[in-house]
Design brief:
Blueprint lengths: L11 H8 L1 E8 L5 H11 L12 H5 L4 H9 L7 E6 L2 E6 L8 H8 L4 E7 L6 H13 L3 E6 L8 H12 L2 E4 L1 E4 L7 E4 L4 E4 L14 E2 L1 H8 L1 H17 L4 H5 L3 E6 L8 H11 L6 E2 L5 E2 L6 E9 L8 E9 L2 E2 L3 E4 L5 E3 L3 E5 L2 E4 L2 E2 L4 E5 L9 E3 L17 E7 L5 H14 L3 E4 L9 E4 L3 H12 L5 E6 L3 E5 L5 H5 L4 E6 L4 E5 L2 H10 L5 E3 L6
Parallel strand pairs: 1-3, 1-4, 4-5, 5-11, 6-11
Antiparallel strand pairs: 2-3, 7-8, 8-9, 9-10, 12-13, 14-15, 14-23, 15-22, 16-21, 17-18, 17-23, 19-20, 19-22, 24-26, 24-27, 25-26, 25-29, 28-30, 28-31, 29-30
The structure holds guanosine-5',3'-tetraphosphate (G4P).
The site of guanosine-5',3'-tetraphosphate has 18 residues, from helix 2.
Length: about 525
């Protein structure tokens, strides 16, 4: 339909398509069951016939690239992409987030592209450190959160205790929509709180097929389940009395969280989650641009790049830029404008990428994620748009790095590969790349939020760019942005501080520790130092 520079007008179709979309991510601590839940969600949507085909343990076995081998060895997921599937009339976009705290900057970028999040907890563990960090990012961005308490098929903590933890530790009002009947490990089913009905737990063989939904009315449930049913009713009533009625507006305002109980590996509770996403999760809304102007959903096409990734798979050694559509219709083949450079960008190769699965995208609407292949010109934070006027969405902030290391090529004959690799890793945001005239181009400084980013960077420099590196760690721990370039010499003169320039042009002042920073500020009260976005907001 649309090709070349033709501008696709929006209209009611775009609004209708946008309102069918639910774009979310699952946040959890490693091992809480994120991959299992992802498979179970896709299974319910009938994308795959047997769990494990998309992203789980079975899927990981087929992985080929070195980089993914590293992920597999560590049991973490570094790659992020989006899975799209239909559930009834709804189009679900599930964005994958990295599973390790060291990649919270990456997670932050992914969370900038979602409209809601599912916080997945292990029933035996409750809120774990990584969950808390990711939740902080959601809170910082005001993202509504649904809580799914997983692994209820085996012994765990009490439901009331887990709900109290949400109130006490993160100040989020729990609003259970299901409540477990029977104790953890002896799950009999759940109470559907709004309907007052019992939904029986019918585990399927290894959870590879969808469990049928057997429901009983309250009276039948009481006759069938006796004390377990009465206890579930009493507990959920107790919580309602303490926390108040279910209130969807408090969920949208991100001050309350609907809570569901289930067992992803048994596919139990997964349908409730999908239904809840359809009914309650926010749909794509018009976004504000960098000047605060609202870009209507049916304005011409616009999107922003939230992730750039290279070498996701040895068979496709290319660079994919993931962009979330914010307005209008995207049609493959469109020529759009990159707001950062003002240059045209042809969208010939566009894919959906999830794990090892790739499929070509022809059309996309607000809320969808497109993977632009061979997009070497695109950087994280870039806005793409068609038509006039130009639009530019706010850039994605870089987190305050806390680890710094000088990168040196171990093979000096490969200077070109070294430069190319460093530039690429910086553009992708694998690490922040800092330079100074003093250190020179052959000794850039890598800055990271978490040290595992260094491992990924070093591995990729060797395996992908053919330039092995040595990392010399620097003893800085604190970074601030220096807003006034004329003050550079003040910081550079210090014994425990240094000025380095980031690829985006920002001057970063590095200090050995907080004390060194305080002493510097005391000695130079007019120093224009600004905090960077801290990890987790
Ligand atoms: P992650 O992506 O969050 O890291 O977790 P993943 O899905 O890989 O799940 C971690 C482990 O928890 C897996 O066991 C998985 O089977 C198990 N699990 C997930 N959901 C449930 C659940 O509802 N109930 C129970 N009992 N276990 C669950 P594993 O032993 O590491 O792997 P596997 O050999 O079982 O595949």
């Amino acid at each position: 339909m649309t090709a070349g520079n033709t501008v696709q007008a929006g209209g009611p179709e775009v609004i209708a398509e946008a309102s069918r979309r639910r774009t979310f991510a699952v946040i959890s601590h490693p091992d809480a069951g994120k991959s299992t839940l992802t498979e179970a969600l896709a299974l319910h949507a009938q994308v795959i016939s047997q769990a494990g085909a998309v992203h789980g343990k079975a899927g990981r076995r087929g992985v080929t690239s070195d980089w993914m081998e590293m992920e597999r060895a560590r049991g973490i997921s570094i790659t992020s992409a989006a899975l799209q599937f239909a559930y009834g009339d709804t189009v679900i976009n599930l964005l994958d987030t990295p599973g390790h705290a060291d990649f919270s900057e990456d997670t932050y970028r992914v969370l900038s592209a979602v409209d809601s999040a599912v916080m997945l907890l292990d029933a035996a563990k409750g809120l774990e450190p990584q969950t808390l960090k990711l939740f902080d990012v959601c809170r910082y961005r005001g993202i509504p959160v649904i809580t799914f308490i997983n692994k209820w098929d085996r012994p765990g903590r009490e439901a009331l205790q887990l709900c109290d933890e949400l109130t006490d530790r993160i100040g989020l009002q729990p609003m259970p929509l299901t409540w477990p009947v029977g104790t953890a490990g002896h799950l009999r089913g759940v109470l559907d709180v709004p309907r007052g009905e019992f939904v029986r737990y019918l585990p399927t063989a290894h959870g590879t097929t969808i469990a049928p939904d057997e429901r009983l009315g309250a009276r039948e449930a009481e006759a069938d389940l006796g004390a377990d049913w009465t206890q579930a009713q009493e507990e959920s009533e107790l919580l309602r009395a303490a926390e108040g009625e279910f209130d969807a507006s408090r969920f949208s305002a991100a001050t309350a969280t609907p809570v569901l109980f289930g067992a992803a590996v048994r596919n139990f509770g997964v349908r409730h989650l999908l239904d809840l996403l359809v009914e309650l999760a926010p749909r794509p809304a018009p976004r504000a641009d960098a000047d605060g102007r609202i870009r209507a959903l049916d304005a011409p096409f616009s999107a922003f790049v939230f992730k750039v990734q290279t070498g996701m798979d040895r068979a496709h050694r290319d660079q994919v830029a993931f962009a979330r559509v914010c307005s209008g219709v995207f049609e493959r083949g469109m020529v759009v404008t990159n707001a950062t450079t003002g240059k045209p960008f042809a969208t010939k190769y566009v894919q959906q990428v999830f794990g090892q699965q790739r499929s070509t995208v022809d059309t996309a609407y607000p809320g969808d994620v497109i993977g632009l292949v061979n997009a070497t010109a695109l950087r994280v934070g870039d806005t793409l748009y068609s038509g006039k006027p130009a639009v530019r969405f706010p850039g994605l902030p870089s987190f305050a790095p806390a680890h710094f290391a000088v990168a040196r090529p171990t093979d000096l004959g490969r200077a070109k590969q070294f430069r190319k690799g460093v530039e690429q890793l910086g553009a992708e945001g694998v690490v922040q790349v800092l330079r100074s005239d003093l250190r020179g181009d052959a000794a850039p400084v890598f800055a990271a939020v978490g040290p595992m980013q260094f491992e990924v960077a070093a591995h990729r420099m060797d395996a992908e760019f053919g330039s092995p590196i040595r990392l010399e760690h620097l003893s800085y721990q604190v970074a601030r942005r220096l807003a006034d370039p004329s003050q550079r010499a003040l910081v550079d003169k210090g014994r425990n501080s240094e000025i380095l320039t980031r690829l985006d042009g920002a001057d970063l002042a590095l200090f050995a520790d907080e004390l060194a920073l305080r002493l510097m500020v005391r000695a130079n009260p007019g120093l224009a130092l600004e905090p960077l976005v801290a990890e987790g907001g």
